[in-house]
Structures are given as structure tokens and as C-alpha cells.
Amino acid sequence: MWESVKEFASEFFVTGDPLIYGADVSIVLSMIAIVSVLTYFKKWGWLWREWLTTVDHKKIGIMYILASVLMLFRGGVDALLMRAQLVMPEMQFLSGDHYNQIFTTHGVIMILFMAMPLMFGLFNVIVPLQLGARDVAFPFLNSLSFWLFFSGAMLFNLSFVIGGSPDAGWLAYPPYSELAFNPGPGQDFYIWGIQISGIGSLMTGINFIVTILKVRAPGMTLMKMPMFSWSVLSSCIAIVFAFPILTVTLALLFIDRYLGGHFFTLDGGGNPMMYINLIWMWGHPEVYIIVLPAFGIFSEIVATFSRKKLFGYKSMVFAMIIISVLSFLVWAHHFFTMGSGADVNAFFAVTTMLIAIPTGVKVFNWLFTMFRGKITFETPMLWTVGIIPNFVIGGMTGVLLSVAPADFQYHNSYFLVAHFHQVIIAGVVFGFFAGLYYWWPKIFGFKLNERIGRWAFWLWNIGFYLCFMPQYALGLMGMTRRLYSYGWDKGWFEMNLVSTIGAVIMGAAFLVQIWDIAHSLKHMKKDTTGDPWDARTLEWSIPSPAPFYNFAVMPQVTSQDDWHERKLRIEQGLEKPEKVELEPIHMPKNSGIPIVMSMFWFFVGFGLIFDWLWMAVPGFIGVIACMVVHSFNYDTDYYVTVEEIKRTEAAAGRVIT
Amino acid sequence: MKTSKTVRCMSFLFMFILLFLTTGCADNYIVLDPKGPIGEQQKDLMILSTLLTLIVIVPVLILTFVIVWRYRDREGRKAKYTPNWEHSTKLEIIWWGIPIIIITLIGIVTVRYTYFLEPSKPLESEKKPITIQVTNLDWKWLFQYPEQGIATVNYVQFPEDVPVRFEVTSDAPMNSFWIPQLGGQIYAMSGMSMTLYLQADEQGEYMGSGANFTGKEFAKMFFTANATSQEDFDQWVNQVKNTSPELTLDGYKELTKQGTSDVRHFSAFPEGLYEMTVTKYAASHNHGLSTRVQPPARVKE
Amino acid sequence: MSKQSVQGTADQHGGHGSLKSYVIGFVLSLVFTIIPILALENGWLDSDKRIIIYLTAALFQFIVQLFFFMHLKEEDKPRYNLMSLLLGLFIVFLIVIGSIWIMMYNMVAL
Amino acid sequence: MANVNAGHHDHHPDQEELRTFAFWIYLMTDVILFATLFATYIVLQGSTDGGPGPKDLFQMSGIYASTFILLTSSFTSGLAILAMNKGNRLALMNWLGVTVFLGASFLFLEINEFMHLVSEGATISTSAFWTAFYTLVGTHGLHVALGLGWMIILIMQIAKRGITPVTKRKVNIISLFWHFLDVVWIFVFTIVYVMGVN
Ligand code: HEA
Ligand code: HEA
Ligand code: CUA
Ligand SMILES: [Cu+2]
């Protein structure tokens, strides 16, 4: 008996690596710590009522952001481990197997469990406020999206300690990812982790499209909508059309692995190229999905801190929509070297380059928003200004890659690695940082410390250039990606050394940011104005943090930067803060179904990964049961009384008569 | 004052990076130091496209610094401030127009080169191409010389100035066959035989590698591509024929097992081994070893 | 979500569709199913050209379902349903045609 | 994803409109899903790995029957809507019942067909072609099964609550879904079956 338990455990848990034992111990310790703190302070009920079952978009947004910062840490630790292994030739720090797992989890976690939720977090907190809405169109669905993402992310991360991580790269190309070469559960963790959270992303896409198109404050026509909301709309359009492709692709891979199918296997007539074709049909739109909202963020910040109207609003909108459609037309640039022929390569090379045009238009419009403005450099603006040259260079190397015959030399080299980190970090990560610094007061009710923030900015940027500029050089030296080791004879040592130093500096920058948050929490200066940056859009017209019903009174929108205009009118005495008639507000009730249902999904995934039908089948029945229960529940909303609105507003320092 | 520091730091940083890029031993940049016609043209194309993009990128960078510098908020500044200026058709036309022009140029160049450098197009040369069949195995490269009847592992030799017709397949997960100094890569996929023409104009030992991840010891898949004189090549072939063991079918099976390998030479290989490897997976795949018409040779520009 | 915050009219997707239009739609859909069956069973034209018949019939069938059953044309403005459908069909076209183009004509392999 | 129809409800009629719109977008995602499956099927169509192909095993008569059954069910689900708009609860429930019955017959025929194919030696792991076939046709079948379960639940809700704005929206949505499945089947029928044996 004991023997079989031991045998099971040695297969079930990942063993043999001190790093992993370390992780095991720290995971168990932090679990115990969390549980005992919650129990000691009797916070379980509070946690359940206020957070786990919440359907409030702002709280959901905060949970997304929290989770994604955690994932940034995990992905960043992976990055530092890789850089440590690569710091010099013939390092013995990580074995080949382990290194392969680490770059795979790094890529997956960074893109799907860090960038996506960070983006969704900002969508959630900000979009309804910008639109002057009470909530997103479907608060229940929103909560379900979050919990699905969360279960997927947890499932994926579990592979680190149970069963073993996937190691086939972040896009899991077959045939290597097929059963024949990859029999362990790692690849199934990959499939189910992404699949479950992907369904959540799809629902978020639908939810925000409906919200933006149909739930705006009266008077806010589409062409008066803030640019961030536009960027969210274009990103969600791409989500809705791209994510089903991912769902299918992963499902097909799973059918191969689980049911013995032959879609992408070597034998049975399978065709691995089809997987590559399909995954990039999702993969390319995906990278624009995460960068478009960042474009929206820059647009908001640039206008606010230049104290000037956004330049070329219509052009910006148009450019964004074009980008989201064009992003579906370029996928083959990821496999120019697969031999599809000159016709295919020429076509996809040209469509790829075309994207540079609308992207360039956006850059110019930001520049000319600053032109003849009055620029101040608070942290959000500092990030934005730093990003522009950085992203432009990354975009330029993208265009170089899109020159198909030249890509035969760049492909899968560190030149490519440098390109995508530059567009992703300078575009997406820094963009979301800028957004976080900008909206932080709105989300949490206090500003982050500017001085420490500036330190973080410089460290991140210097670290970035040091880390990734040498990688372009390495690419031109012929260094290919996904190498766990290289020889002294290659001449790659110096650049790798510099690159690793850069990575460490970025790690330090991350720690400085955490410190920034801790420091600002301790010396909290509450934002009493609700509008600390003297900004332009509706979210700044209400107290920080926003009351749970957002707007005590529905705003009437008349112009593009409505809040800015209203402030001007009040200043000039043209508009007095008017008397308002408060009405009871209709609100959705909290629900425990999303979290429970996502837990069942987790069991489905886990059961299928280990081929434990006794777990997967009940899990699936649980999922169905949750849907049915929810369908029969007609009691899902309530009204907030006028009294309570008055009390809440007064507590936020606003008197409503 | 804040901004001036910004700009100074930034420009300092850029100089620093430039310094790095230019001083780090220049002969390491093998992609930019090609030794064959394909690599040569790819390098030209890389440089040309870089220059074309720089036409827009450099002004954008300069403009960014200038605007940020000039319009920063400070006491008594003279620069204009127009808070409501938000549209200018003229400007919009400029920045839609210029990128369109540049992209059109790059696009035209790209399309021309794409057809011209199509990897399966034979190279123009008086000399008859030599065929080398490449098989990607789990964590080693097998080279077969159908004309010479010899085979090697992780080492390939061929005469200079002679077009080499690489036929590339895989008996393992998909890889990518790449000799940076001779020219770009091509995927090595099972069930297919990809054609890649390369040629070395100079004698020398060039690094070759697998560029697409295939698992545990993927990092050990480097090989040497040695371009020698025709005499040296013939002599080498003879020597391999006379001194090396034969590659048997069982020997091949042994090679396909997962593991790394040192350089090895074989005086012979089983008849039709390469074709067998390809067709093994291509039972239904519509592009195995069909004898398709060869595309016309490429002509010099 | 208070009511004034929602765009568009509150007109329910109710009143449309009459028995007549449903019956017409049904009959048409039967016709467009029978045509390809006849073509197949009786071997009209030769087998390559027959494919055009099949695909055309399927296309018409699709249109019939869209207009007679799914009431696409009765949508209120702005016609987001129509727009998303068109964009969706465009992407469908890309996926199918793009895959075929990329996958079926690998030029480098000999 | 069926719970798109669920979520908290609201007494404002426009909330129902939002849901209908959201469901339409969900249908678009399903369109993409099927497009991807079709693309895969078409690409792998020839990859029978020397085993049996469509011409060898498809039995068209059963397919014709199930096609007509599904077409008819699309029609009856439309009749259900008409009954609902007239406020006739009983007729609504009856027509939905008929639709469920037809859908179930369709599924029955499909399962039968699959069992026949398997008995002829064409399983999901026979070759890439059969993998693609079972996946594409099976995914459509799963959607039908889902729709059936959903319709049954809906009939129960109508029995309990009558025709309210909420149940009305739900019926509208399920009938949209049903027509959509009919459309998908048309393409399965044409591309997989008719063109398969052509
Ligand atoms: C946020 C993510 C993001 C973004 C925005 C981009 C943007 C672009 N990318 Fe990138 N890319 C990735 C993420 C991203 N990419 C990732 C993750 C990979 C690799 C994945 C993997 O293999 O693992 C990749 C790989 C990749 C390849 C494949 C290379 C290979 O595998 O060999 C190519 C090839 O064409 C490419 C091109 C481009 C282009 C042309 C753009 C353009 O959109 C850039 C446009 C922007 C500008 C050009 C700058 C601003 C414009 C102006 C100032 C106007 C004027 C400019 C000109 C006229 C030039 N990318
Ligand atoms: C959003 C996307 C994203 C982001 C933000 C990053 C961020 C970073 N990435 Fe990553 N990367 C990818 C997406 C991303 N990457 C993808 C998709 C791949 C391809 C994967 C594949 O090939 O399949 C990749 C691959 C990749 C490689 C290539 C691996 C290979 O091919 O062999 C490298 C190598 O240098 C690298 C480095 C880094 C570094 C140094 C950072 C830095 O920015 C990280 C910053 C560091 C931190 C934030 C650390 C914070 C933590 C601490 C300070 C704690 C320290 C404590 C301990 C060490 C215990 N990445
Ligand atoms: Cu690769 Cu066929
Ligand atoms: Cu791309």
C-alpha cells in the first residue's frame, strides 16, 4: 500500500530539482499563511461576499490586475532563470529539459496570463466609467470570464509542481507536441490551461463589444467616445474572431493526444503544417489584441498631459479599425520558411508591411498632440514618452522581418526574439504600466509615489535596452532561439552577458515598483478630488475610488472630452453644479455561480490531463448543473435606495442636494 | 529641468548601445558577412530595407525629441500653446502619404526578391549542381551524397563555387536547416523533401545549425559546413569511401534514436534511404518526392 | 443599466416574421436541398462542374435561412448584426481560402 | 458558452435586446469555429493514409433523411416563434416539443451513422481524414445535443412562468441558434457528404 502511494507520488509530483522543491515549499508555506491569516481575522465571509462572488466590474478589474502582477513575477522569474543559464557559454545551471520548460512557461504566462489579464483588468475598471455606464453589459458573465481565466491560469501553473511543465514552446508546434514525442501531462496542462482561460477571454470580448456599442451614457455618440474605449472595441473585435480559432486548434491537438486522432501527427496522414497555419491565424491577431488597448492608453495620457485635445481623432479611430482587420491578413509571415511558395510569401509580406502605415499614423498623431501642448512629465506621461521611440524601433525591426526573403535569415534567431520583446515590452507592458500609473488613483483612491515611480521607469528602460539591443546583435551573429547552451567558439558571450545584466536591472525595476506600491500604501495620501491629473474623460468626474454604482446621476454627454469641457464651463461660470433628482439605482446581485462553475471547469481540465474520468465527468456535470441553476434563477438584481446613494456620496466628500 | 535629464540620459543610452553594437568584434556578425550569392543578396536586401525604413524612423525619433523638448511646460516658455488644435488635413495627408510611399518601395523590392530568391530555384552557374540530402534526426543532422554515395553526420563538405542543391527532410520533429553565411533557412519536415539551393564563393568552415526547436538536446544540433576546393573535396570523398564504415539500415535505425552525435563518416548508405524516409510519412501527403518540372534557373539581375 | 443608457430603440425582436414568410422559406430551403441531391444522384454535367451546382445551392440555402428565418433584414439601425456578419464571413473566407492556398501548394517541396 | 443566454435579468426590455445582440456575436464566434473545422477538413480531405475514404463508406440515403429532418425542425422552431408572438403558450410549447423531437431524431440518425462507420473500420484514429470527419460532424452533433437540452429547459421555464419578456428573449435566441445549426448542416451536407461522394 505505502509502496504504491510512493510510486504514485513520485510520478505525480515533479521531483528531482532543488528549484522545484523550493517552489513546493514556498507554495505550501504561503498557502498556510494565507489560510491562517484569513481564519484568524475571520475574513472568509468578507472575502466571499466582497470579492469572490462580486459582479462589480471594478473589483473584477482589480482581481485581474492582481493576478497578472503575480504572473508577471512568475514569468519574470522564468526570464531571469533563462538569462542566468545563458549568461555565459556552457553554463551548467539548468538542464536542457528544464530550460525548455522554462521558456515555454515564460512565453505562455507572459502573453496569456500576464498581458491578457492586465489588459482585461484595465478594460474592466475603466471602460464602464469612461462610457458613463453603471457596469458592463453582462456583469455575471464578466465574473465568469474572470474566474475561468483564473482557473486556467492556476491549472497551467500547477504543472510546475504536479506532473511536469510543457516544453514545446509557447505555441506548442507539433509533431513535437504530439503524444509520440511528448507523452507526459505537461502538454495537456498547456492545452487545458489555455483552453479554459481562452473561453473566458472570448466571453470578455463579447461582453465589451456589447457594452461599448450599446451601453453608453446618453449623448455619447461613437465619435465622442474616448479613445481608450475605441481601442478596447477594436481589440475585442479581434478577440471575437481570433479566439475561436485558438479554441479549435487546441481542441484538435487534444483530440490527437487523447483520442488518438491524426490531425498533426507524423503517421496516419496527419499534417503538422496545418497546426502552424491555424495557430498563427490566432497568434498574429493575438499580438495586436494586446497592443491595441495600449495604443488607446497612450492616446488618453498624451492628451491629458499635453493639456491639449487629442490630435486627429477620426484618423486614430480609422487606423485602429484597419489594424484590427489587417491583423487577420498577415499570419503567414511567421512561417515564410515553410516553403509555401513565392506567391504566398509575397502576398503576406506585403500585407504585413501595410500595418506599419496605420500604426505610423497613430504615432504621428501622438506626436502632434504634444506639438504645441504644455507637456508635464508625471509618471504616466514619462512612460508614454519613453515608449514612443522604443516602440517605433521595435516596429521598424518588425518591418525588416516582414521582408520575406530576408526573414529567411532572421527567422527563429535572436533578432526575432529582440523584435517581439521590443514591441511587446515597449508597446504592451510599458503601455499597461503607463495605464496603471494613470488610473491608479481612480482604482485605489491614492496616487503612487512619483519619485520612486521615476526610478522604476529609468531602471526598466535602461534594463530593457541593455537586455534586448544586444539580442539583435546576437541574431545577426547567428544565434538561434531556444538554445539552452552554446559553446565558447561561437563568440556570443559578451552580448549575452550584457543581455543578462539588462534582465537583472529589469528585475530590480520590478522590485522598485512593488516597493513603490508598498510605500504609497503606507504614506497614503487620499485623492479627494477624483481628478488628480486634471484629465478629460468621464471617469474623472466621479470620486476616487468610484462608488459601487459608479455614477450617482447619469451624465449627459455633449462633447468629446466631456469632463474637460464641463470643467471649463464651470470655471467660466457658464454651468453651475446643477441640482439633481436622485433615483434608486438598479444593480445586479452578487453570485457564487461563476467561481463554482470555474472550479468545476478546473476539475474537468485536471481530470482530462491525467485521464481521470472519475474527476472529469462529475466536473462536467457540475458545469452543466451551474448553467441550469443559473438559467432558472430569475432573482438576480436589486435597487440601491436614494438614502444609500446620498450616504455613499457624502462619504466620498460630495454633497448631493 | 527634468526633461533635459530625460533627453541626456536617453541619448547617452543610445550612444552606449551603438558603441556596443559597433565594437563587439565585428567579424562575429556572420549573417552580415555572407560567403555565397544567396546570403549576399539577402544581406543586400537587409541593408536596403533597413535604409528605407530609416528614412521615416530617424525623422520620427528626432521629431519626438524635439517636440518633447520644446513643448515641455516651464516658466516663461515661448513656444506656442494651442489647446484646441486637433486637426489638419495637410498634416494627415503627409503622414498617411510618406509611410505609404516607403512601404510601397519596400513592398516592390520585397516582392521582386521573393520570386528571385525562391529557395527551390536553381542557381545560375556553369557548374553542375551537387545534390546533398539532409535528414533532421533527433538531435543530429544526417547528410547523404547520392552522387558520391557517401554519408556524414553533423558535418557537410562541398566544393566552392558549385551550386549545392540541398534536399531537406526530417525523420523527427520539424526543424529548420540553416547555414547563416551561405543563406537563409528552410524547414525540415517529415513527409516532405524541401529544396534549398546554396553556394559558397569562398573556402572556409561555416557554422550550420538547426533553427527550429526539436526537444531536449536541440542545442547540440550545430554542424560544420566546410567549403573546399574541388580537389580537396574529391580527395575527401575518396578518403571517406576508403576508410569509413558503411551506414546500414540498422545503423540508420540506431541514428534515429534520440541522442546527440559527434561528427561521423560513412562510406556508403542503403540505396534509396532518403526517399524511403520521405515516403514513410508521405503516404497521403500530396507533395512527397514527385518529379515536378524544375523551375527555370534564376538570372542575374 | 438604467434604461436611458441604452442606445437604439426598445422595439423587441418580436413582431416580425409571418406564417407566409416562414412557409416560403421552408419551401425554398427544400428546393435548394433537392437540387444538389438530384444533381448527385442523376450525375448531371460532369463531376467537376457539378461542384458548382452544389456550392451555389448551398449559398442560396444560406441566404434563405438568413432572410426568411433569421430575419436579418429587419434589424434596426445601426445594423451591427449585419456588420458583424459581414466581417465574420470575410474572416471565414480568409480562414478557408487562406488555409487551402498555403497548405495545398507548397512550392519548395519537390 | 451556452450561458450567454443566462446572466442576471432585468425588467427593462432593452436588457433583453442586449442579450439578443450578444448572442448574435456569440454566433459569429461559432461561425469562426466551424470555419476553422471546415478548413481543416478540406485540407486533410485527401489524407486517408491508404485507408477507406468517403466514397467507400458514406451511405447517402440516411444523410438525405437527416437533412430533411433538420430542415423541417428549423421550420417548426420558426412556427414556435409565431405562436409565441401570438401569445399562444400551449402552441409555443408544442412546436418547441416538435422541434426537440425532430432534433433528437437527427441525432439518433447521426449516432447510427457513426456506429455504422466504426463497424466498417473507420474510427477517429484510422487516418487524418476520419479524424477530421468525426471532429467536424461530431462538433455539429454536439451543438445539436446542446440545443436540445437547452430547449427542454426552456419548455420547463415557459410552463412555469409563461411568456414573459425574459422567456420571449430566450425563445428567440434558441430559435436563432437552431437556424444557425441548420445553416452549418447545409455546409456539412454539401462539403462533406455530397462533395465527398461526388
Ligand atoms: C505586441 C506585439 C507585436 C507587435 C505590435 C508586432 C508588430 C509587428 N510585427 Fe511582430 N511579432 C510579435 C509581436 C508583435 N509584433 C511576436 C510575439 C512575434 C514572434 C512570435 C514567435 O515566433 O514566438 C513576432 C514576429 C514577427 C514576425 C515573424 C518573424 C519570424 O518568425 O521570422 C514578423 C515578420 O513579418 C513580424 C512583423 C511585425 C510587423 C511588420 C509589425 C508592425 O505592426 C509594426 C508596425 C510599427 C511600426 C513600423 C513603427 C511605427 C511606424 C511609423 C513610425 C511609420 C513609418 C514606418 C515605416 C514606413 C517603416 N513580427
Ligand atoms: C508579454 C510577453 C513577454 C514579456 C514581458 C517578456 C519579458 C522578458 N523576456 Fe521573454 N519571451 C516571451 C514573451 C515575453 N517576455 C515569449 C512569447 C517568448 C518565446 C517563448 C518561446 O520561445 O516559446 C520569450 C522568450 C524569451 C527569451 C528567449 C528564450 C529562448 O529562445 O531560448 C528570452 C531570453 O533572453 C527572454 C527574456 C525575457 C526577459 C529578460 C524579460 C524581462 O522583461 C523580464 C523582467 C523581469 C522581471 C519582471 C523579474 C521580476 C522578478 C523578480 C525581480 C524576482 C527575482 C527573484 C528571484 C530570481 C527568485 N524571453
Ligand atoms: Cu510540410 Cu507537407
Ligand atoms: Cu505576426
TrEMBL record, chain A:
Domain Cytochrome oxidase subunit I profile: 40-558
Transmembrane stretches, start-end: 20-41, 62-82, 102-127, 139-162, 189-215, 227-255, 317-334, 346-368, 380-404, 416-440, 452-473, 493-515, 592-610, 616-634
Superkingdom of this protein's organism: Bacteria
A GO biological process held by the record: respiratory electron transport chain
Family matches, as Gene3D superfamilies: Cytochrome c oxidase-like, subunit I domain
Membrane topology: Multi-pass membrane protein
Gene Ontology CC terms: plasma membrane
Required co-factors: Cu cation; ferriheme a
Coiled coil: none
Keywords: Cell membrane, Copper, Electron transport, Heme, Hydrogen ion transport, Ion transport, Iron, Membrane, Metal-binding, Respiratory chain, Transmembrane, Transmembrane helix, Transport
KW Ribosomal protein (keyword) present: no
Pathway assigned in UniProt: Energy metabolism; oxidative phosphorylation
Pfam families: COX1
GO molecular function: cytochrome bo3 ubiquinol oxidase activity; cytochrome-c oxidase activity; heme binding; metal ion binding
PROSITE patterns assigned: COX1
Subcellular location: Cell membrane
Family to which the UniProt record says this protein belongs: Belongs to the heme-copper respiratory oxidase family.
Protein name listed in UniProt: Quinol oxidase polypeptide I
Organism name: Brevibacillus fortis
Automatic annotation (TrEMBL), chain B:
GO CC term (a single one): plasma membrane
Residues annotated as domain Cytochrome oxidase subunit II copper A binding: 127-239
CDD domains, alphabetized: CuRO_UO_II
Substrates-to-products reaction catalysed: 2 a quinol + O2 = 2 a quinone + 2 H2O
Ion transport found in the keyword field: no
Enzyme class: oxidoreductase
Predominant subcellular localization, coarse grouping: membrane
Topology within the bilayer: Multi-pass membrane protein
Database matches in InterPro entries: CcO_II (IPR045187), CcO_II-like_C (IPR002429), Cupredoxin (IPR008972), CuRO_UO_II (IPR034227), Cyt_c_oxidase_su2_TM_dom (IPR011759), Cyt_c_oxidase_su2_TM_sf (IPR036257), Cyt_o_ubiquinol_oxidase_su2 (IPR006333)
UniProt domain Cytochrome oxidase subunit II transmembrane region profile: residue ranges: 23-121
Domain of life according to the entry: Bacteria
Family according to the record: Belongs to the cytochrome c oxidase subunit 2 family.
Function field: Catalyzes quinol oxidation with the concomitant reduction of oxygen to water. Subunit II transfers the electrons from a quinol to the binuclear center of the catalytic subunit I.
Official protein name in the record: Quinol oxidase subunit 2
Source organism of this protein record: Brevibacillus fortis
Gene that this polypeptide is encoded by: cyoA
UniProtKB/TrEMBL annotation, chain C:
Membrane topology field: Multi-pass membrane protein
GO cellular component terms, A-Z: cytochrome o ubiquinol oxidase complex; plasma membrane
GO biological process: aerobic electron transport chain; electron transport coupled proton transport
Protein localization: Cell membrane
InterPro entries on file: Cyt_c_oxidase_su4_prok, Cyt_o_ubiqinol_oxidase_su4, Cytochrome_c_oxidase_bac_sub4
Main location, first listed in the record: membrane
TM spans (from-to): 21-39, 51-70, 82-104
One Pfam family in the UniProt entry: COX4_pro
Gene Ontology molecular function terms on file: cytochrome bo3 ubiquinol oxidase activity; proton transmembrane transporter activity
Superkingdom of origin organism: Bacteria
Transport is among the record's keywords: yes
Keywords: Cell membrane, Electron transport, Membrane, Oxidoreductase, Transmembrane, Transmembrane helix, Transport
Family named by the database record: Belongs to the cytochrome c oxidase bacterial subunit 4 family.
Protein name as it appears in the record: Cytochrome o ubiquinol oxidase subunit IV
Species for this entry: Brevibacillus fortis
From TrEMBL, chain D:
Xref: InterPro entries: Cyt_c/ubiquinol_Oxase_su3, Cyt_c_oxidase-like_su3, Cyt_c_oxidase_su3-like_sf, Cyt_c_oxidase_su3_a-hlx, Cyt_c_ubiqinol_oxidase_su3, Ubiquinol_oxase_su3_dom
Signal peptide: none
GO biological process, one term: aerobic electron transport chain
Predominant location category: membrane
Gene3D superfamilies: Cytochrome c oxidase, subunit III, four-helix bundle
Domain Heme-copper oxidase subunit III family profile: 1-197
Xref: SUPFAM superfamilies: Cytochrome c oxidase subunit III-like (SSF81452)
Chain coiled-coil ranges: none
Cellular component terms (Gene Ontology): plasma membrane
Keywords: Cell membrane, Electron transport, Membrane, Oxidoreductase, Transmembrane, Transmembrane helix, Transport
GO molecular function: cytochrome bo3 ubiquinol oxidase activity; cytochrome-c oxidase activity
Topology within the bilayer: Multi-pass membrane protein
Highest taxon above the source species: Bacteria
NCBIfam families for the chain: CyoC (TIGR02842)
Name by which UniProt lists this protein: Cytochrome bo(3) ubiquinol oxidase subunit 3
